[in-house]
Design goal:
CATH class of the largest domain: Alpha Beta
Subcellular location: Golgi apparatus membrane
Enzyme class: transferase
Organism: Vanessa tameamea
Number of helices: 19
Pathway: Protein modification; protein glycosylation
Shape: globular
CATH topology of the largest domain: Spore Coat Polysaccharide Biosynthesis Protein SpsA, Chain A
Radius of gyration: 28 Å
Number of domains: 2
Helix content: 40-55%
InterPro entries: GlcNAc_II (IPR007754), Nucleotide-diphossugar_trans (IPR029044)
Largest sheet: 9 strands, mixed
Structural class: alpha/beta
Order of helices and strands: HHHHHEHEHEHHEEHEHHEHEHHHEEHEHH
Distance between the termini: 94 Å
């Protein structure tokens, strides 16, 4: 018996020893596989997260190589400074940036900057004139895109004759330092003072007693939450981050036209851009041609438009294809290139920027058509006269149940008493492009800013010989079905009476005297 007992113990010890050796071998193999195939495994994890409708880990992970060598190769070396990421901030490559701040300090800084109305580089480029082109740029937190927008602006001809006004709804020192480093034209910063950042626990931010977005009316009444009686037209309650965009746009326009001292007598054009736009080097030249053409051909055209959301402008080198497409009107051209794109069966998340014939040429075509929000809101341009007409209908703008500023303008356009809809004159070969694949409304798994930016750069490089046309020719279009479809109701998100009241009150702020603050 003792022998059998000892034999059993030895067998158990032997089995345990072999098991330990096997575990050690497996661990070594696993570590080696992780080292070798880390990228593939990470991709699988990301895909699993997306399949389960989870957000990818961070914006930084998706955008770990924002400024690629391909992008830098098409940027003049002297402008690389605007793309420089400071090593101390590992998240600087992310398209969106958030960091904890002291709210009281931010509010004081916002009040100080808005009160000062400082114009940087005014000593180098002279004061703002009544006809100076003002470029108003709405900025949130997408630093990567903002860098490239600034690079594109720096390369634009006659940019030194403009005033760039950066309108922020998020206070961030790295963004501020980037903007204040601009040395190619006059620059001003303004800060939306009612932001979610500066009001994190109260309206216009999210008050703890605000109704949950998807709460039913009966539930909201039981909760006695704020504005329970006023959900939007779809039965939802407000979300501060979405409401803020319309508030910011409306405040920015009011601020520029009605409150800044440098624009008190301004009668020139104001170009509306956003942080994720990219401009061609001749956009100011084209703007001048559009204005001249509108004055001669379409005095009733109130809005100019430099951009479009079409992503295929294919330049055909073969004469047969060129002749074929030159016989088509613009709508047919759009349909033709859309059909070609479908036939090529590109991934729906791949952007296909290409140059199209007849859009860029010595004599380029522009179109006069009814203004439509989703087609003509990028690179939109108008002056004080148009703003005055919009302001006359401010109550309609502020009461319309849609959190989008552009659809709210479309509502005004379609309901102007005794007047036609806004007319727009636009260039078919766009000079403003949308590069914002990542961020506020876009959360794609393959979200990489460099991919889109490099394609826009390549497009403009291909079209370089067609930029700066001597003249443009205008065609009048009644617009398609989408242009003329009457808005029945808005997209919602704007049923809260507090949003409507805040919007209306923004037009009542007096013009502020300019103060000078000298920075050491």
């Amino acid at each position: 018996m003792p022998r059998l007992k000892y034999a059993s113990i030895l067998r158990v010890l032997l089995i345990l020893g072999l098991f330990c050796v096997w575990v050690q071998i497996m661990l070594s193999a696993t570590n080696g596989a992780l080292d070798k195939d880390g990228d593939n495994i990470l991709a699988d994890i990301l895909q699993t997260n997306l399949t389960n409708n989870e957000e990818p880990f961070t914006e930084e992970l998706m955008n770990s190589n924002e400024t690629s060598e391909q992008v830098l190769a098409l940027v003049p070396p002297e402008l690389h400074k605007y793309l420089t990421v400071h090593p101390r901030n590992s998240s600087a490559n992310a398209t969106e940036r958030y960091s904890p701040k002291n709210v009281s300090d931010i509010l004081r800084a916002v009040q100080r900057v808005n009160g000062a109305q400082t114009i940087y580089n005014e000593d180098l480029f002279g004061p703002v004139q009544n006809d100076t082109i003002i470029i108003a740029i709405q900025v949130h937190t997408r630093l990567t895109y903002l860098r490239h927008l600034i690079v594109s602006l720096a390369q634009a001809k006659d940019i030194d004759r403009t005033l760039l006004i950066f309108s922020h709804d998020y206070y961030d020192e790295e963004i501020n330092n980037l903007v204040r480093s601009i040395d190619f034209t006059k620059v001003m910063q303004i800060f939306y003072p009612y932001s979610v950042q500066t009001h994190p626990l109260e309206f216009p931010g999210m008050d703890p007693n605000d109704c949950p977005r998807d709460a039913k009316l009966e539930q909201a009444l039981k909760l006695k939450c704020n504005n329970a009686l006023h959900p939007d037209l779809h039965g939802h309650y407000r979300e501060a981050k979405y409401a803020q965009t319309k508030h910011h746009w409306w405040w920015k326009a009011n601020r520029i036209f009605n409150q800044l001292q440098c624009t008190a007598s301004h009668t020139g054009m104001v170009v509306f851009l956003e942080e994720d736009h990219y401009v061609a080097e001749d956009f100011i030249h084209i703007l001048s041609l559009l204005r001249t053409t509108a004055d001669k051909t379409c005095p009733q055209c109130e809005i100019l438009c430099l951009g479009t959301y079409l992503k295929t402008y294919q330049y055909h080198s073969t004469s047969d294809k060129r002749k074929k497409h030159l016989t088509l009107n613009y709508i047919q051209q759009v349909r033709a290139i859309s059909e070609e794109r479908r036939k090529r069966q590109h991934d729906t998340q791949t952007w296909n920027y290409q140059v199209y014939p007849n859009l860029y040429a010595n004599t380029q075509k522009v179109e006069i058509t009814p203004w439509h929000s989703s087609m003509h809101n990028m690179g939109m341009v108008f002056n004080r006269t148009v703003w005055t007409n919009i302001l006359e209908l401010q109550e309609q703008f502020c009461a319309y149940d849609d959190y989008n500023w552009d659809y709210s303008l479309l509502h005004l356009s379609q309901n102007r008493p005794g007047r036609e809809k806004f007319k727009v004159i636009l260039c078919k070969g766009p000079r403003v492009f949308h590069i914002g694949e990542c961020g506020f409304h876009h959360k794609k798994s393959n979200c990489n800013a460099s991919t889109v930016i490099s394609k826009v750069q390549k497009l403009l490089q291909d079209a370089k010989s067609y930029l700066f046309p001597a003249r443009v020719t205008a065609t009048i279009s009644a617009g398609g079905a989408k242009h003329n479809k009457k808005l029945i109701k808005g997209n919602g998100g704007w049923g809260d009476l507090r949003d409507q009241e805040l919007c209306t009150n923004m037009t009542r702020v007096e013009r502020q005297m300019r103060k000078y603050i000298y920075y050491t």
